[in-house]
TrEMBL record:
Keyword Iron belongs to the record: no
Keyword Transmembrane helix in annotation: yes
GO function terms (MF aspect): antiporter activity
Residue ranges of domain Cation/H+ exchanger transmembrane in the record: 14-370
BP GO terms, sorted: proton transmembrane transport
Sorted UniProt keywords: Membrane, Transmembrane, Transmembrane helix
Name of the molecule in the record: Potassium/proton antiporter
Residue stretches in coiled coil: none
Length: 382
């Protein structure tokens, strides 16, 4: 692989990203979906060189850690006084509804109860990167979008807890799952986020008088991601924790994550293009009736769960049916859960992988479209 081919490929990918960005702003199609479709086509044609596709893991961790910091930055205490209860109630209700509806529906279909329970936990995972990018593309900032950002900030934490507990139950006696692993991963991530966020809140933004420099922002992101991978804890939760601490404790900051907002988009372009290229469209053919039922159950569960959670939390009436619709995207977290579940339940490994990858492709492509529709149709008062 010659160096010039690498540069040409990266240049072409950024041009595609620019085109997707412009087309997304001029149409009602989320740029996330456009990038995934372009990546899917490039992967099918095999035109992305191996050294570029080999960087997918690095780019995905980097892009998602950027997203984690921004999600944490959305958890301002002064905003949470208004939306905090709503965020917790809606997110928990959606996760519980997903677990109950998907598991019960698959069991009634004749699926092995252990497999059904694990698949219901995988269904609880979301796509924070896609959701936050759709919100940013919409240009809408109101109570609905702030609540939505808060929900995706905590949603995967609930999902990880639910997945760990469900997998422990399903794999009981197999010796594959440690029941305290969820406490280690989440607790360790919280401690790591605090270890980065506390000094970060005090040290960043001093040189430029109120705003962290780009180099400060990059150092926080890469330190958090690297330490999380080294400690084998969730870099998403660590990044969200650090972001929340910094945005609430750094009173000298004007806009704590302004530079991250500028830096992240080039990484996101490469991430979504390579994510699309890594999708195996043939997996959709393997999902069969169970996959179609799973998709229908997940959609139903999230819409009903979001609606019930919105009622319980006192959300404005007009936005209540929209929370579940806005939270349909699903991406890499679900695939990661599937890989862990396949190792713990080897007898169901093939079905878990095929079903999760196949349905994730569907949710990754049409989910952002529905999120953008929901955001534009929500009129929650500020």
């Amino acid at each position: 692989m010659e160096t010039e081919i690498l540069f040409l490929t990266l240049g072409a990918m950024f041009i595609v990203g620019l085109g997707a960005d412009q087309l997304g702003h001029r149409t009602r199609i989320p740029r996330v979906t456009l990038l995934l479709l372009c990546g899917l086509l490039a992967g099918y044609l095999g035109i992305i060189p191996a050294p570029v596709t080999g960087a997918y893991e690095f780019l995905s961790v980097t892009a998602l850690t950027f997203v984690a910091f921004l999600l944490g930055g959305a958890l301002r205490i002064r905003d949470l006084r208004i939306t905090g209860r709503r965020i917790i109630v809606i997110s928990l209700t959606i996760v519980l509804a997903t677990l109950l509806v998907v598991a019960a529906g698959l069991i009634l279909l004749g699926v092995d109860p252990k497999l059904a329970i694990v698949l219901s936990a995988i269904a609880s995972a979301t796509a924070p990167a896609a959701t936050t990018d759709v919100i940013r593309q919409s240009g809408i900032a109101n109570e609905f979008t702030r609540t939505l950002e808060g929900i995706v900030a905590v949603d995967d934490a609930w999902g990880l807890i639910a997945f760990s507990l469900c997998l422990s139950f399903a794999a009981a006696g197999n010796g594959h799952v440690n029941e305290i692993s969820v406490l280690t991963e989440i607790g360790g991530a919280l401690l790591l986020g605090a270890a980065v966020g506390l000094p970060g809140a005090f040290l960043t933004g001093r040189i430029s008088g109120g705003q962290p420099l780009e180099i400060e922002a990059l150092s926080l992101v890469f330190l958090t991601a690297g330490l999380a991978l080294w400690a084998e804890v969730s870099f998403l939760i660590a990044g969200m924790t650090a972001g929340a601490i910094i945005v609430n404790m750094a009173s000298h900051h004007e806009r704590a994550f302004h530079e991250i907002e500028h830096i992240q988009w080039p990484f996101m372009i490469l991430f979504f293009l390579l994510a699309g290229a890594s999708l195996d469209i043939a997996a959709l053919a393997d999902v069969g009736l169970i996959g179609l039922v799973y998709i229908g159950l997940r959609i139903t569960a999230r819409i009903v769960g979001g609606w019930l959670g919105a009622i319980l939390s006192g959300a404005p009436t007009q936005s209540r049916p929209l929370y579940g619709i806005a939270l349909l995207p699903q991406a890499g977290v679900a695939v990661g859960m599937a890989l862990v579940a396949a190792r713990a339940l080897p007898e169901h490994a093939g079905q878990i992988i095929a079903l999760t990858i196949g349905t994730t492709i569907a949710f990754e492509l049409f989910g952002p479209v529905l999120t953008l529709w929901a955001v534009r149709h929500a009129h929650s008062p500020d």
